[in-house]
Amino acid sequence: MTARAPSLDRPAPLAGFHAATRDWFTHAFPSSTPVQDAAWASIAAGQHTLVIAPTGSGKTLAAFLHAIDQLFAQRDAQQQRPAQ
What we know:
mainly alpha, 0% strand, DEAD/DEAH_box_helicase_dom, DEAD/DEAH-box helicase domain-containing protein, DNA binding, ATP-dep_Helicase
């Protein structure tokens, strides 16, 4: 997988994330890395994703942020279900 420059017809890298995830990330980091942008797009598309890049490029956070984001989404889905 090669990192590509953002294009105007592609959504922002964090656009698909839960609001809580986006807020945390934007307060913790100045921006995402090209490695993260490419990984998030691939992971969000449901593709098996192998990320190979130098140390410090954001690989680990790319994988774990998406997993943590799914926990927020599941929590919200459970809270929105009507009580039985």
